[in-house]
Amino acid sequence: MTERVVLAYSGGLDTSVAIPYLAEKMDAEVIAVLVDVGQGGEDMEVVRKRALACGAVESEVIDAREEFAADFCLPAIRANALYMDRYPLVSALSRPLIVKHLVQAAHKHSGTVVSHGCTGKGNDQVRFEVGIGALAPHLKVVAPARDFAWTRDKAIAYAESKNLPIDQSKKSPYSIDQNIFGRAVETGFLEDIWNAPIEDIYSYTSNPAEPRDADEVVITFEQGRPVAIDGETVTPFQAIAELNRRAGAQGVGRLDMVEDRLVGIKSREVYEAPGAIALITAHQELENVTVERDLARFKKSVDQRWGELVYDGLWFSPLKSSLEAFIDESQKHVTGEIRMTLHGGRAVVTGRRSEASLYDFSLATYDEGDLFDQSLAKGFVDLWGLPSRLASARNTRLS
Predict the structure, then answer these.
(1) Residue 151 and residue 135: Cα distance in Å, rounded?
(2) Which residue positions in the chain have pLDDT lower than 50?
(3) Assembly state and interactors (predicted)?
């Protein structure tokens, strides 16, 4: 029986070469699946036809942009998910969605194997294969670049020998992955971590050093979900896209970091995620206003662990699901408006407003109308410090 391979197809060299290579190596029929997560670039129909020209028996494009924003980016915003306190999980969030559609395509097309273009050095191989194992453990996985020691030179030579419709003259010197939530750039001269990024590598953001007028924006949240921008109702996808445009025009969301990959190596990555950074910044501030102190403190640890699980490819894990249930409960009162100024590469909160606010002006003010009973403070301080005083007395007695 002929194997049917469902390939996660991007339209680039590696996955285009994989089509005839897998067909020959495995005597298989290849079904190319391109998932649109808002990455932009080439027309999706052009890419779909390229897969057929490379030898795919079937090729399909799945428009998952709204789904990606609502079901993957939105939970990340509510979790304030920043890996290593900086990176908003741009690539990590898209992989489980792609996995979901690859598995669905395998069922639809009677596929027995799933294939991807990841190497053995990166995180994505883990994200793809652990996800596939969770959703469809019966499917086999093949990664040509990793499993068959497929180098770039070999791929180019193979493409030329097969006359594949791939124009290598337009090849970027960088490795780039992008979607609606952001853009990741690596390799090339960036692998020397002393080299500063150059302006040419950026696409989602303008140079923050260039003079321009500031942009003020008001973001409305309901239970942790962005639902309006400057009073105009938006879907999660529209919220991210609009803030990509406006925050990106102000140079917001540029990150240059050395991150800890799951496979154990450190990697230099340059990211730009204007919409993600603006929305997470606004969401964090609304939580500061509406979430009770002990819940807020504990949620920080939950948020961090949620982000680590997603980065590590464990989107479909029981722990991630349970943490998300906690996060959902924590968002009950995260409703209100945040005003921000976007300028000079920064998204700065300048105003907060919420019917669910825990900020009480009459308790916070130092002016006339102060209702805080300061006479209670001395006893509170004495009791709060009692364990420390007892420990100190014990240490003095025994020294």
Answers:
(1) 30
(2) none
(3) Homotetramer.
| Topology classification of domain 361-398 | 1.20.5
Catalytic residue among 124, 225, 267, 312: 124
Say how far apart CA 74 and CA 80 lie, in whole Å. Answer: 10
| Residue 102 annotated in ligand binding | no
Determine whether the annotation assigns residue 357 to a binding site: no
Q: Is 366 annotated as a binding residue?
A: no
Q: Is 95 a catalytic residue?
A: yes
SS3 115: strand
Q: Which of 65, 95, 225, 268 is catalytic?
A: 95
- Please report which helix (H) or strand (E) contains residue 60, including its range: strand 58-63
360 is catalytic: no
* Residue 176 near residue 11, CB atoms below 8 Å: no
> Is residue 271 annotated as involved in ligand binding?
yes
CB 144 within 8 A of CB 8: no
The pLDDT score that the predictor gives to residue 283 is: 98
Annotated ligand binding at 235? The verdict is no
Could you tell me the residue ranges of all domains in the chain?
3-171, 177-291+333-353, 361-398
CA dihedral (82, 85, 90, 91) positive or negative: negative
Return the CATH class of domain 177-291+333-353. alpha beta
CA distances from 113 to 36, 52, 116 (A): 21, 18, 10
Which of 36, 71, 146, 175 is labelled catalytic? 175
127 labelled ligand-binding? yes
The catalytically annotated residue of 4, 14, 268, 346 is: 14
The CATH number that domain 3-171 falls under is 3.40.50.620
What is the spatial distance between Cα 88 and Cα 98, in angstroms, rounded to a whole number?
18
CB count within 10 Å of CB 277 equals 24
Rg (Cα) of the chain, in Å, rounded? Answer: 25
CB 140 within 8 A of CB 116: no
